[in-house]
Structures are given as structure tokens and as C-alpha cells.
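testing teh design pipeline on a random one, pls ignore if ur not involved
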């Protein structure tokens, strides 16, 4: 299999590079930590390492060394498409090189051979009450698949440590292959009367999701799926879903346990659920004014939200200090495909108003939009209006990034994660000594 061969070929050099760095320079200080950071959600503390993506506060994400515009330009596209194949992105994340179309299709074909989901997994989900949140079902579906973990089986058989990454890659391919299928099953179970649709082997991974939820005839929606699944895949290692996945996997829990944990983090309103909250906020604006609001009306609505002690969803970021390039890429898609859509136009107006409001608030470090400020409005335009489902779509994509990271963490022998905690009294003592 091409991914395994490519990773295996790079591995000795990577292992040597890391070993040398730690052995020769392991005591060199990479950061200093203050009390505010310890109490403040560990913000900016350099304590994780990944070579798969990096978020520059002003430039945004680079997948390997490529920015979002570069990714969209350079990754291979199938004939007649404008947006690249997700299989090519997964190749890039895992291997670190832009694949050829043939290599991207090889990943897509791997997925096709692994996308079937055992019936018992569907039965677990069917047994849940109808009002269960789709993210709960998504996380449960991933966990139910754990029974087939190749890593867990090989570990129980006594596999040597140097081989850990190989079954981790197998598990990752098996899990990522099933993501559109699992998510579409949940969508159809909740919103389409339990209709069951099998994936179509003639379609790519992203387009298959569109097809399975009943949007197979909409070429533009299939393009949006490709874009969405590329943009949300990875955002370095410190975000909640990536970090939770990494933490759990560091105990040598397999991909299924780790990714289910990661998805539980993504389900939080300060993280992935913000896309659902954001669309809800936009629709609330339209409902309140019963027409398209003026700038002044929108500004007042924003202040009412803030004065009620709530956040403006889709704005702000823990690392970014400029508009998120993932937001900009979706904005460009919207301008091309739906410039006159009312909700999309509201997204544009929000962009003109909210940064000023959040700047006036005085405490927000980044007043600019993040990825979630727009994604729901694009889905809404194409008739995917069940917005409690949006975070599942984020999850389909995020599994690409977190599994790629897990494979490399295993390959480089990253240890169990176990930071040190202290008591408030100890910090007070530290503060007193500092004067
Ligand atoms: N609306 C209102 N207040 C905000 C916002 C916002 N959009 N963003 C930050 N703040 C507040 C924040 O709550 C904090 O207040 P306090 O000191 O009273 O606790 C203060 O500003 C300083 O926070 P920051 O340091 O700017 O942000 P932090 O790194 O702590 O949090 C987020 C980052 C993303 C959690 C925060 O900006 C937020 O809650 N945004 C809205 C939710 C959202 O869009 N989340 C999605 C993030 C992207 N994703 O997909 O995960
Ligand atoms: C993400 O994509 O994970 C979000 O932007 C949150 C983050 O990076 O902290």
C-alpha cells in the first residue's frame, strides 16, 4: 500500500533527526511558562510537537508547508472538478508531499475497499432515542467500530514497539474510509426517515457524502463537500479535538478510542459546535428583525448578545490574530456560488460589523472570524438545514488530521502524555518568591 511504503521510507531519517535533537539538545529551553498561562488554559505554551500542520497567528494554517490557497491550487483534482480530492489531502498530511492524481486516487481507492460498516454499529445508533444529538451518535459510532481495531488485536498478541505505527495506519485508513458513510447514516436516520444509502464506488470520498444524504445531483454541493472536508481537517495539535485525540492515543489506546474522545471535544460550543451556534445566531438576527438588518441594527443585536453574557459564535480564536484563511476560502466559494443568498449576505454584513464590536469590548484578543463563522451558511444554502448536524461534518474532516497525527506520533514513539499539576498554594509561594 502506497501510504505505508512512503512513510516507511521516511521513517529512519525522522527517527534519527528526533533522537539526535533530544539527545544533544534535550535540555535547551524551548519556552517559559507563567502563572497566568497555567491558569489560562495553557495558552501559547509550546508543549506539543507535530510536523503535519502549523498555525501562524497572522497567516493561519499550513498543512505541511502549504497555505490554504496553495493547497487548493496544488492538490490534484478529478477531471471536471475545481476542488481537490480529499484522498490527496490525506496523502499530503501523512506523507508530506503533494501527490500526483494517481497517488490521490490510490488513497480514494483504499477508502473504497474499507468503507463498509458492520450492521451492529448501525443497530447501536438505531437503538438511541430520536432526539439524541448527532455528535453523540457520531462519537458512539466511532467507538462501536473499536471492536475491529487492528492495533488492539496486534498489541494483545505482543507486537513489538517499532511496529506500533503500522496497525495504527491500518486502523486510520479503516476509520477514515467509513466517515462519510457513518455520518450519512446518522443524517438519514435523523432527518430522512432512516433511509439507508450505500456509497457509490464511482464517486470520490467527499462526493459520496453528498450522494448518500440525497444531494448526489448537485455538482456545486459536491464541490462544497470537497472544500469543507479539506479545510477542517487539521489545525495543529493544541486545539481541543486534536489534543484530546493525541492525549488518549498516548496511552496506547487505539484510533477508535482516541478519535471518539476527540469528537467529544469537538462537540463543545467553544470548539466545533460553534458552527451550529453561529448559524443559529444568524437566523435569530433575521427572525428578530423580520427583514435584512441595517448595520446599526446588527450592531445592537451583537451588543445584546454580549450583554446577555454570551459569546458571538464564529469570532475569536486562541491562536489566530487575523481572519481565518479557512473562512476566507469559504467566503470566496460563497461569493462565486450564492452572492444573493440572504443568509450569506448576512455573513458578509456580520464581517463588517462584529470585529469593531469585539474590539470595543476591549478584552477579545482576536476580533476576526474563524472557520465556523461561515460554514453553516453555505450548507444552509444547499438545503442542509439541520444545523445540529454541522459539527458531524466538521468531525468527518477532523478525523483526517487527528489520525494522520496519531500515525506519526506512534511512528516517532511519542510517550504517554502526563504534564505536572501544582496547587494554588504552590503558585502563591512561587509568586511570593518572585517578589
Ligand atoms: N464573543 C465574546 N467574547 C469573546 C469572544 C467572542 N467571540 N471571543 C473571546 N471572547 C472573550 C472571552 O470569552 C474572554 O472573556 P473572559 O475574560 O471574560 O473569560 C476574553 O474575550 C478573552 O478571550 P481570548 O483570549 O480572546 O480568547 P480565548 O483564547 O480564551 O478563546 C475562543 C478562544 C475561540 C474560545 C473564543 O474566541 C470564543 O469563545 N469564540 C466564540 C466561539 C467560537 O467561535 N469557537 C470556535 C473556535 C474555532 N473552532 O472551530 O474551534
Ligand atoms: C480548530 O480548527 O481546531 C479551531 O480553529 C480551534 C483551534 O485551532 O484552537
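output:
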Amino acid at each position: 500500500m502506497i501510504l505505508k511504503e512512503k512513510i516507511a521510507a521516511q521513517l529512519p531519517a525522522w527517527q534519527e533527526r528526533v533522537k539526535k535533537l533530544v539527545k544533544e539538545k534535550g535540555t535547551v529551553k524551548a519556552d517559559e511558562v507563567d502563572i497566568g498561562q497555567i491558569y489560562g488554559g495553557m495558552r501559547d505554551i509550546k508543549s506539543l510537537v507535530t510536523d503535519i500542520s502549523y498555525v501562524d497567528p497572522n497567516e493561519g494554517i499550513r498543512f505541511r508547508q502549504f497555505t490554504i490557497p496553495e493547497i487548493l491550487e496544488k492538490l490534484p483534482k478529478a477531471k471536471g472538478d475545481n476542488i481537490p480530492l480529499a484522498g490527496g489531502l490525506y496523502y499530503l498530511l501523512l506523507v508530506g508531499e503533494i501527490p500526483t492524481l494517481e497517488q490521490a486516487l490510490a488513497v480514494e481507492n483504499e477508502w473504497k475497499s474499507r468503507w463498509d460498516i458492520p450492521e451492529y454499529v448501525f443497530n447501536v445508533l438505531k437503538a438511541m432515542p430520536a432526539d439524541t444529538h448527532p455528535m453523540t451518535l457520531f462519537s458512539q459510532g466511532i467507538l462501536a467500530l473499536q471492536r475491529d481495531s487492528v492495533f488492539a488485536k496486534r498489541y494483545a498478541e505482543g507486537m513489538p514497539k517499532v511496529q506500533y505505527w503500522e496497525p495504527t495506519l491500518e486502523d486510520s485508513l479503516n476509520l477514515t474510509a467509513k466517515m462519510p458513510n457513518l455520518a450519512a447514516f446518522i443524517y438519514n436516520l435523523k432527518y430522512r426517515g432512516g433511509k439507508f444509502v450505500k456509497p457509490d464506488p464511482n464517486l470520490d470520498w467527499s462526493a459520496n457524502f453528498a450522494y448518500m444524504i440525497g444531494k448526489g445531483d448537485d455538482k456545486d454541493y459536491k464541490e462544497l463537500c470537497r472544500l469543507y472536508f479539506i479545510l477542517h481537517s487539521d489545525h495543529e495539535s493544541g486545539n481541543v479535538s486534536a489534543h484530546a485525540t493525541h492525549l488518549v492515543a498516548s496511552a496506547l489506546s487505539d484510533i477508535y478510542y482516541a478519535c471518539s474522545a476527540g469528537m467529544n471535544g469537538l462537540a463543545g460550543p467553544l470548539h466545533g459546535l460553534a458552527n451550529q451556534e453561529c448559524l443559529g445566531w444568524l437566523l435569530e438576527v433575521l427572525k428578530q428583525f423580520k427583514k435584512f438588518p441595517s448595520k446599526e441594527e446588527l450592531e445592537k443585536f451583537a451588543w445584546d448578545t454580549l450583554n446577555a453574557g454570551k459569546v458571538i459564535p464564529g469570532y475569536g480564536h486562541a491562536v489566530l490574530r487575523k481572519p481565518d484563511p479557512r473562512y476566507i476560502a469559504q467566503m470566496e466559494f460563497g461569493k462565486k456560488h450564492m452572492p444573493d443568498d440572504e443568509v450569506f449576505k448576512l455573513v458578509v454584513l456580520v464581517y463588517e460589523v462584529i470585529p469593531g464590536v469585539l474590539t470595543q469590548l476591549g478584552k477579545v484578543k482576536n476580533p476576526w472570524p474563524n472557520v465556523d463563522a461561515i460554514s453553516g451558511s453555505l450548507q444552509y444554502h444547499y438545503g442542509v438545514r439541520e444545523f445540529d448536524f454541522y459539527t458531524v461534518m466538521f468531525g468527518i474532516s477532523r478525523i483526517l488530521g487527528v489520525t494522520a497525527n496519531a500515525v506519526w506520533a506512534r511512528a516517532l514513539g511519542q510517550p504517554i502524555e502526563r504534564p505536572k499539576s501544582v496547587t494554588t498554594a504552590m503558585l502563591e509561594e512561587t509568586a511570593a518568591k518572585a517578589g
